[in-house]
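Hey, sorry to bother you again with one of my protein questions. I've been puzzling over a protein and I'd love to understand its fold better. Take your time with it, there's no hurry, and the full record follows here:
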Amino acid sequence: MGFVAFCLNRFQATVINDIWFEICFFSGIAAMVASVSHFTPAELGISNQLLTVLGTVLGLVVSFRTSSAYERYQDGRKLWTAIQLMSRNLASLIWIHVPTERAAKPGEDPSRNRRLEAIIEKKSMINLVQAFGVSVKHFLRGEGGPFYEDLHPLISFLPRFAAHHQGVPEHESLPVWHGAPRREPSSAAATLNGGDLEKGVSRDDPVLLPARNPPASTIYDMLPFLILLKPLIQPIVRLIKHSNKEGERTNLLGRKRKVLVAEGNIPLEISLFLHSYYAFVLKQGWLAVAPANAFLNSLNSLQDAVANLERVRNTPIPFAYQAHLRMCMWMYLFLLPFQIYNAYGWLTIPATAFASFLLLGFLEIGQEIEDPFGYDMNDLDIDSICIAIGRELHEITAHPAPEPSSYIFTAENQPFAPADRRTAKDIVDDVAHEYHGADTGMGSVHRTLLANWREVNTLTRKK
């Protein structure tokens, strides 16, 4: 079963399912040409002089189309790499360079645990850094609102995204909140006062959607030619099940729609909070010049990456170019059997099928990868990228920022190995060694390091 599932998964990653009907159609044309020419007096074969000219031009245009789409695909991957790198850098700056030890201000309660408050503050802002990448993922997929399992828990404490944040007027909260689906209290969990649920879950809390929320596959995805019967099928479907037009995620051809219009700009909202935190730490004087510049550059790089991702998503290949190219391709494949029958005979049928598979495949690949942010098998796996960002940020916050002396001068560190296998603690404690001599110290250390280089150079160059 595992092998069968693997094969099916790989098959879905190909474009065969998208072009098989067209291949069958043009193969049928070839079969008609071959049968009529062979079994009747009519001769459908024509000169193939036009084939060479049009085939060369069409091949160049298809190559340009595929190259342009792949360039957009590569741009998307590079920009997501930039988001991953900047998120890592920003989290490191917040966790390491923003101080944890803070002096009490005049008039503050001296019993407050300022160290704990500082750790909570920094971890909350790093959660926002993680939420930024997740929100970009949903934004590029046209999934509006913050109500996703991988996003809402990270930003629910922000005023505009909180369900019951005190001091925030209703008209200033996020607009999508008012249309969010609410939880219904169950009879087992509801109390006598009729409102509160177990574990702090209220009926006013939103229903969170899965982190991956792809549009449901339809019969039109498997059998594209049924779109011709859609006007007859759709009324029957609506009689059986009411169709929510706002929730439909298909295009005019009945295929899964890849991009919807997102409501709100949550990445922008999150970046505003990160910028406000940057202004806060500068005002408190907690960052030196170099870390402060790196902080600001990382924030600007995140916004720059999002702007370029929007450019890739919102600037598709012009429709006129795509439509004209596809019509020319269809005309070429339609006329192909007439031009090659005199040379191939019955082989016209498989030759036309192969040519259709080759040319239509490249054309469909270009159309599929020009927007690499959806749920198709060949799209970028941005879910895994967001998970990797979260994993890296949690790893950063799992380690404190100790003093170097607490881990350098220990019994486990051998700084001068392999020439000197003694530990750092032994080297420091052995004051009688020539390393500690006023005249021999640095020269002896240099000789040890030179011996290190020679030994490592010899060992690594052995065949």
